[in-house]
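The protein record passed on below.

***
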Amino acid sequence: MLKKLKSTNTETLKNKDLWARRENAVPRGVGSMHQRFSAYAKNAEVWDVEGKRYVDFATGIAVTNTGHGDPRILEAVKAQIDNFSHTCFQVTPYESYIALAEKLNALAPGDTPKKTIFLTTGAEAVENAVKIARAATGRPGVIAFKGGFHGRTMMGMALTGKVAPYKVGFGPFPQGIYHVPYPVPYHGVTEDMALEAVADLFKADIAPEDVAAIILEPVQGEGGFYAASPTFMQALRKLCDTHGMLLICDEIQTGFARTGRVFATEHAGIEPDLITVAKAMAGGFPISGVIGKAAVMDAAAPGGLGGTYGGSPLGCVAGLKVLDIIKEDRLCERADEIGALFKARLTAMRDSGLKEIGEIRALGAMIAIEIVKDGVADAPDPARTTEIVKAAAEAGLILLSCGIRGNVIRFLPALTAPDEILNEGLDILDAVMR
C-alpha cells in the first residue's frame, strides 16, 4: 500500500548522515530506538527522509492515539495560532484552559467534584501530584511499585522502580520514597504478595500515618504492559481509605481511550484522589495535567503550583479536539476492536509454531508480547527482542520494546488505524519472526 510522500525539503538527506550529525550534536543520554528520521506522517504511517514508508505501531510512545496529523486537531491549533501562541495562564488566562479542565473534571472517574491543573510534561505532572498529595495530607512518604516508570526528573526517577537506565549516576534522590512489588502473575508475583509487601513496609520502614500517597500505573508502561486487576486496584483504594492516604493513578501512557476507556482506572470501578495525564491528551502537542478531587487539589497555597508554559493554549485547544474525536469516532470501542484483532493474530502466530511468543497481553489497544525461549516464562530473551525490533524496522514496521527484563514488544497503534494497515503491520511482524 504505497503512498506518495508529501513534498518536503529533505530530498537530499540520508538517515546515516543525520545519525552522524546527531551523534556529534546530541548527548548520548538521549536515546533513539531507530536510526530513521521522520519526514512525514499521516494517521498510522510514517515516511523517513529517504522516502521509505513504515507502519507505525509506536505512535510516539502512545501519544498520537488519534493518528498523525488529524486535520480537526491541526485546524484548531492553526486557528489558535492566529490569535496568540502564549500569554501564560498565570498572567492573562484564557478560556480554553478552563474549558479543557471542565471536560476532564466531568470525565474523571467518580462523583466527587474535581479540579485540574495543566502543565507541560508527564514528569512535571507526577512532580505536582506528589506536591499536592503532601500538601493535602501533611505527610512526606510515597509508596510506588517496582517496574513502574514515572519520569526522568529527580522525583520521577525516585518513584521509578527500575535502576538501569533511568537512575544510573543521577543520585541521590528525594527521600521518603518506598517501593513494593507490582503484581505480575506471569512472573510469579501475586496480588497477595504485593499487598503483604505493603503491610511489611508499614512494620519495618514507615508508619501508614506518615504516607501521603500510593502511586501506580493501572497498566505499567515501560515496565512491560502489566495490568493491575480490578480487585488489586480496589484493595489499594480500601487501604488508602483505611489509613488516610491518597491514591494517585498515573494515566500518562494509559489515558485517552488507549485501554478501551478514557481512563484505564475506569476498568477497576474506583475513584482515585489524583490522576496524572499527558501523552495522548492533545494528539502530539505538549501538555500534561493533574486531575483530582477538588478539596485535595485546593490544598496547595496560591502560587505553589504552575509553570510558564503550563497549559499551553495550543495544547488546550488540541486537547479539547481530542476529546471530541474520542467521542465522535468511538475510539474507546475501536481500542477494544484493535485489541481483539491483535490478540487473535498474535495467538495464531504462536499456535503456528512461534514458541518464542510467551504471554500475550491486551487491555484495549495497549498490547504486548513476552519474547521468551521455547515459551518458558522464566527464560526471557532480550537479545531476540532487540533483533525483532530492528528487523521489523528494516521491513517497514516501527515497534517499541520495554519490560523490566527487556524482553517485551509493545504495540501502540493509532486508534484511527484501519484494519488493513494493522494487518499489514502484523504480516510484517510474522514474516520477520519466522
Summary: The longest helix spans residues 331-351. The CA atoms of residues 7 and 40 lie 9 Å apart.
